[in-house]
Every structure is written in structure tokens, then in C-alpha cells.
Write a structure and sequence with these properties.
By secondary structure, the protein is mostly beta strands. It is 0% helix and 53% strand. The protein has 3 domains: 61 residues, SH3 type barrels, CATH 2.30.30.30; 61 residues, Nucleic acid-binding proteins (OB fold (Dihydrolipoamide Acetyltransferase, E2P), Beta Barrel); 58 residues, Nucleic acid-binding proteins (OB fold (Dihydrolipoamide Acetyltransferase, E2P), Beta Barrel). It is flat and about 65 Å long.
Length: 189
């Protein structure tokens, strides 16, 4: 058991049989009435973020979760197969719990968040930045910045589509921010 004084970003708790993680929180002490904590929490099953207010000092049930390093091996009909980086045990997980599954490539290192009591995988998180080769993109015309965004679509080696600047060409290596699936920079070879 913990209280609202123990809140921190990333804390995992159980509410009504569902697991939630704290995205953001703020302690509020109004001039009149009791103090409370305003939070944004993410449901680990549905990934939906909701607002929830807790009375200050209320007890909450913490959930024990562990972040385990894994390596992506391959995709099969049953799901995605990962190998634990230290114990070499393999596990297969569904695509629904993988953030940006189309950016996974063989040999990629990821962190799988597991509910420690039930050994159930909750989420699979890619590293914040990954490097991919552009396999196809339309050639950018020099001086063509008439469009408001001056971005074009590019397909990377896993088949995912990313918006990139006009100067990126087929065969270039680019760095992608996996949190918002955006182009970060061109990687020098």
C-alpha cells in the first residue's frame, strides 16, 4: 500500500482490477477544503489516458512491474518473438501491446514491461531513437518548398511510412523518434 505522497511519474497502480501508470500529477492545496492530487493516468491494457483526482493521503494499491531487456527475433503467426537478453528465454507477444510495431526490425533491442506477480507482458517499448534505411521515397525537387510543411513520405526497411524532409533520398540512413514516429536527423555513413 502507498499513498498519494508516493506519486511519481511512471508509478504503476491497480484501480478496480485494471493497471494504470501515472503520466502526470499535481498536488493541489486550495485555500478552502481538503488537499487533493490531480493526475493523468494511462491504462496499460488500452493505452487510453484519463484524468483522475485523488484525495490527498488516500491509500492506493501498487502493482509490481519490471522492465526487462529483450531482443526482437522474428514475427510469426502467433505474434512477435522476443528473447530475454540475459536469460535467453523466448516469449511471444501480441502486436497490440507493442508501440509502433511496424518500426521493429530483427535484432532490435527493446524493453518489455512485465507485471511481476502474474508474469504478464504489459507493453513493449522501443528505444527513443532508432536508425533505419530509406527503401523508397519520391525524389525531392530542388527549390520545391511551396507546400506548407515541405515534407514527403518515405518507406523505411521495415515497411513503415515516415514523413521526411525533401532532401532525403532512397538509400539514406535516418534517425527516427519512436515516441511520435517523426524524422529526427540524417545519419552520416
Amino acid at each position: 500500500m502507498a499513498t498519494t505522497a508516493d506519486f511519481k511519474n511512471g508509478l504503476c497502480m491497480e484501480i478496480n482490477g485494471e493497471l494504470f501508470t501515472i503520466v502526470q500529477f499535481q498536488h493541489v492545496k486550495p485555500g478552502k477544503g481538503p488537499a487533493f492530487v490531480r493526475t493523468k493516468i494511462r491504462n496499460l491494457k488500452t493505452a487510453k489516458v484519463i484524468d483522475k483526482t485523488f484525495t490527498a493521503g488516500v491509500k492506493i494499491d501498487l502493482a509490481r512491474i519490471e522492465r526487462r531487456p529483450h531482443q526482437f527475433l522474428y514475427k510469426e503467426e502467433a505474434g512477435y518473438v522476443f528473447m530475454h537478453s540475459e536469460t535467453y528465454e523466448q516469449m511471444t507477444i501480441n502486436e497490440e501491446i507493442i508501440e509502433s510495431a511496424d518500426l521493429l526490425k530483427e535484432g532490435q533491442n527493446v524493453e518489455i514491461v512485465v507485471h511481476a506477480d502474474t508474469e504478464t507482458p504489459l507493453t513493449c517499448e522501443l528505444p527513443p531513437f532508432i536508425e533505419m534505411e530509406v527503401t523508397y521515397t519520391e525524389p525531392g525537387l530542388r527549390g520545391d518548398t511551396s507546400s506548407s510543411s515541405s515534407l514527403k513520405q518515405a518507406t523505411v526497411e521495415t515497411g513503415a511510412t515516415i514523413n521526411v524532409p525533401l532532401f532525403i533520398n532512397t538509400g539514406d540512413m535516418i534517425k527516427i523518434d519512436t515516441r511520435d514516429r517523426s524524422y529526427s536527423e540524417r545519419v552520416k555513413g
